[in-house]
Protein 1
Amino acid sequence: QVQLVESGGGLVQAGGSLRLSCAASGRTFSNYIMAWFRQVRGKEREFVGCISRSADTTSYADSVKGRFTISRDNEKNMAYLQMNSLKPEDAATYYCAAGPNSSRRSSSYVNWGKGTQVIVSS
């Protein structure tokens, strides 16, 4: 198991930027695919993007492609989500997740943080 803690959420105006961080502890961080999901209350958790173990491959949801960037630092056991050109529809609780395989399905990830809230004002 790996423990995950997200940070960096907050209130931002539409068009602005935020950088979310995910700190990992426990098992070897570099063994895991890292992903970001988001969820609005009453809706299903939505895939945002994921990054390979060596950070050489990323995948994004169409809704964020070109605006969001996922990165990781295996030396620091950290993953990041840089969010630019934020829109009101990006407002959600954002979760980082770790799993053995690259997937857009939340069920593929066994380790989750508690989330950090992002609010985007129009």
Protein 2
Amino acid sequence: QVQLVESGGGLVQPGGSLSLSCAASAASGRILSINGMRWYRQAPGKERELVATITSGGVTYYVDSVKGRFTVSRDNAKNMVYLQMNSLKREDTAVYSCNVDLTLLYIGRRDYWGQGTQVTVSS
């Protein structure tokens, strides 16, 4: 019914950059609004961590460890959220997942998750 498709993960050397994207789609007319859009990550053996958030009004939040290096943005017309990651460090290695707060016709407001994309920072 609702799909979140992520792309852009991969292998990069320390200091490099990657850009992630997440596209939300649903049957025509079913998405009434997109509220918060978020990126989470989970490294092996660690709990899932909220990395960045962008509200419907464009207000952003970042976890301290990525401030100044990561940038979250969104394109409301395309129902997409992006995460630009610069100056990547080995400790950024994780599976990154998008989470989108949607209001759907007949269903109401719910959270949806992408499938996750692996980001590996290694030389």
Protein 3
Amino acid sequence: QRQLVESGGGLVQPGGSLTLSCKASGTIARYDAVSWHRQAPGKQRELVAVILRDGNPEHSLAVKGRFAMSKDNARDTVYLQMNSLKPEDSAVYYCRAERETASSRYDYWGPGTQVTVSS
């Protein structure tokens, strides 16, 4: 059973918007950190945004002011609202959830959702 599943990707024109969702199979509030990452062909995976357990979202410089991450604990879902999209935002977007206890470390990734920005 997948712990995380992303949705909402697709093809959009430059300047357009998309909202990605990441649904957790369990209680998302239990994770220490939930984040969005992306990977374009031939490039390394990069962090886009992160929310710590009780913190505010932080965004990378590449997307700050255009993207907004949010979390809905009641729906066990995180979102990534993406505005003013550019061709260089094209990538597979992944959701990640991390949790560490005294005895174990949990690190889950979703399968990813493709975002393509093109005219």
Protein 4
Amino acid sequence: QVQLVESGGGLVQAGDSLRLSCAASGRTFSGYTIGWFRQAPGKEREFVSAITPSGSWSEYADSVKGRFTISRDNAKNAVYLQMNTLKPDDTGVYSCAARNGIIRTIVKPYEYWGQGTQVTVSS
């Protein structure tokens, strides 16, 4: 299994940038697909982005495409989410998650989850 801890959230203004980090530990981190999800107040958790074990392929939700970039550094057991041009609609708790398989864009297939980090974007 893998343990995940997110960091890097905060309170920013619209148009600002943040970089979230997902620090991982456990068995065979480099073999896991890692996804980022977010949950806004009163809404269900939604897919944001995901990256394959080698980092050779990534996927993005339409709402963040062109603004967010996911990356990973397996030597550091870390995955990052660079978030640019943030909007108030980006507000939510951002969690990283891991699964032993291909990229999926829904919550259910991801087996391991971090606690989440709060991102708040003001108008």
